[in-house]
Design goal:
Blueprint lengths: L3 H10 L2 H4 L9 E5 L6 E3 L15 E3 L5 E3 L8 H10 L5 E5 L2 H8 L9 H7 L5 E2 L8 H11 L5 E4 L3 E6 L2 H24 L7 H13 L4
Parallel strand pairs: 6-7
Antiparallel strand pairs: 1-2, 1-5, 2-3, 3-4, 5-8, 7-8
Helix pairs in contact: 3-6, 4-7, 5-8
This protein binds zinc ion.
The site of zinc ion has 4 residues, from loops.
């Protein structure tokens, strides 16, 4: 079987989506790209999260053609593949309809950078791209265009949800979790009043410290 470790990794990471309240039923998907072969491991379409196994993950090539797998690949596969083809540094992608972030997407609004955690992780607002239909690579095109003008690893899609990227599938999951957490904080603050802004120079300082100095 191809890529047993990446299959296991991508399968196990799917458990983080319901655990972090990012998905309902079978919505949401994760993929990971193997740096050595360029092959992509992605969730099978319409399978319940508790029925996901390393074996029923689907392996596709850069154009989305199934290389190994007995199931149909996620309906978002063409968009994942488009993003991987355009963004060589990305090796993990997560898509969710997480509640608070999608509320901003429904309004076509970015999530403003008003917490130090957002400055750390996203280096600015989490941008919102335009509307795109599901099934082909149109969503991927919107994601790539939206992330191009931003330091954020994740973006919103108008009337749809969240796409988060990372250097690995795990870091993309972290970005998806942090996107929802900050969306919930900003939404809550908006119910009480107008959030205070952080000066752009301070956002830069926070981002640079966190990205370059923070951690072990
Ligand atoms: Zn979706």
């Amino acid at each position: 079987m191809l890529l047993p470790e990446l299959r296991r990794k991508v399968c196990d990471l799917h458990a983080e989506l319901p655990k972090n309240h990012l998905v309902a039923w079978t919505s949401g998907n994760i993929s990971g790209r193997d740096p050595a072969t360029g092959l992509i491991v992605i969730k099978p379409s319409g399978v319940l999260f508790e029925h996901l196994t390393a074996d029923n993950m689907v392996v596709v090539d850069a154009n989305g053609a199934v290389v190994e797998g007995s199931h149909k690949a996620s309906s978002d596969t063409a968009s994942h593949c488009y993003i991987y083809r355009q963004m060589p540094q990305v090796h993990g992608i997560v898509h969710t309809h997480s509640r608070y972030a999608t509320a901003f997407a429904v309004l076509g609004r970015e999530i403003p950078c008003v917490t130090t955690a957002m400055a750390d992780e996203f280096g600015g607002p989490i941008p919102c791209g335009g509307f795109a239909l599901i099934g082909g690579e149109e969503i991927g095109q919107v994601v790539v265009a939206t992330l191009a003008g931003s330091r954020s690893p994740s973006c919103l899609l108008q009337s749809h949800g969240v796409f988060a990227t990372g250097a690995s599938a795990e870091s993309a999951v972290k970005a998806a979790v942090m996107t929802e957490d900050n969306a919930a904080i900003v939404w809550t603050a908006l119910q009480i009043g107008a959030p205070l802004t952080i000066a752009p120079a301070d956002i830069d300082r926070l981002y640079n410290r966190y990205q370059n100095v923070y951690g072990q």
